[in-house]
Amino acid sequence: MSIAFLLTTLIVVATPGTGVIYTLAAGLSHGRRASVVAAFGCTLGIVPHMLATITGVAAVLHTSAVAFQTLKYLGVAYLLYMAWATLRDKDALLVEDEKAPRSTTRTIVSGVLINILNPKLTMFFFAFLPQFVGFDEPDSLVRMLELSAVFMLLTFAVFAAYGILAASVRSHVTSRPRVMTWMRRVFAGSFVSLGAKLAFAAR
Known about the structure:
0% strand, mainly alpha, 11 helices
């Protein structure tokens, strides 16, 4: 495994995007455990894109405008829903130890959907993996699976680190009502911004 692959992967996963925003929000809203669960959900959301690339479905998205646009706008709609839900839930960032933790399943499903409904991730894998694996070389399928596994492992590690860091300052941030209000607005605005970016994304 090349250093170039590892460095490129770290840069890609560490760059703030929908997954990072969601994991940070989970850490601030519900603590360390929720942030790790959110990171796991986002990582699981990579699997369909990885499989799409390896099986050639990415080529269909690349050549079919209808398929790409359909998936893209489903993603936009979900990001806007996340923005609305963040603004609506005024208690999301409150620290209450006696409050029941957020459902693990719900957290994972939200993380999975955030990444599944992003066709740019499939296109990224389609353009990224072939740079490090030749399709005509022996065991290319195994090689792509190995690199994809490393990508997912680093994604989980980086996202979890973001979330745990956010959770560590949770009480300092959420104990201030004005800060809490602005944090909700920032997260909601981030989801809207990422949705707009996805809406105008070309294949």
